[in-house]
Amino acid sequence: MGNKKVVLSGMRPSGPLHLGNYSVLKDWIRLQEEHDCYYFIADWHALTTGYRETGELSGNIQEMLLDWLSAGLDPERSVLFRQSAVLEQAELYLLLAMITPIAWLERCPTFKEQLRELKGKEINTYGFLGYPLLQAADILAYRADAVPVGEDQAPHLEITREIARRFNHLYRKVFPEPESLFGSASLVPGTDGRKMSKSYDNYIVLSASPEEIKKKIRSMITDPRRARRSDPGRPDVCTVYEFQKVFNPGERQEIEESCRQAGIGCVQCKERLASRLCRYLEPFAEKRRELQGKPHRLQEILEAGNQKAARVARQTLEMVREAMQL
Question: Could you give all domains of the chain from N- to C-terminal order, each with its CATH number?
Answer without folding.
Answer: 6-188+295-324 (3.40.50.620), 198-288 (1.10.240.10)
